[in-house]
Amino acid sequence: MSVLTVGETADRLRVSRRTVKRMLKDGRLTGFRIGGNGDWRVMEDSLPRPERPARPGPPKPRPVTGEMTNLVRQIEETERTCP
Questions:
Q1: How far apart are the C-alpha atoms of 23 and 28, rounded to whole Å?
Q2: How many CB atoms lie within 10 A of CB 17?
Q3: N or C: which end of the chain has fewer CB within 10 A?
Q4: Structure confidence at residue 67 as a pLDDT band (50, 70, 90)
Q5: For every residue of the chain, which 3-state class applies, written as one string?
Q6: CB within 8 A of 13, min separation 6: which ones?
Q7: The domain over range 1-48 is classified in CATH as 3.90.79
């Protein structure tokens, strides 16, 4: 069972500390208060799992269309005719 501070949670979720506290109060995150000043600790297991990878893969190549098609044809023709 791992616990995080509000600041650590905010960094992981890429939200503000205020948003983390709201999420704790409305039940979207599980945590508890400690000490006399009421600092929160967040249960790491309650953090939402990312729905998509943090780093997307390389962009997919786009099909050659329009003016690019003409340019590609010109280059190919030039390569065939030049020794």
A1: 5
A2: 14
A3: C
A4: confident
A5: CCEEEHHHHHHHHCCCHHHHHHHHHCCCCCEEEECCCCEEEEEHHHCCCCCCCCCCCCCCCCCCCCHHHHHHHHHHHHHHHCC
A6: 19, 20, 47, 48
A7: no
What digits encode the pLDDT tens for the residues 24-61? 999 999 999 998 778 999 999 999 886 666 666 787 87
Q: Any idea where the domains of the chain sit in the sequence?
A: 1-48
Backbone angles phi, psi at 74, to 5 degrees: -65, -40
**What is the Rg, in whole angstroms, of the alpha carbon atoms belonging to the chain?**
26
CA distances from 45 to 7, 26, 30, 42 (A): 16, 17, 8, 9
Kindly report the number of other CB atoms within 10 A of residue 2's CB atom: 7
Better-scored residue on pLDDT, 37 or 2: 2
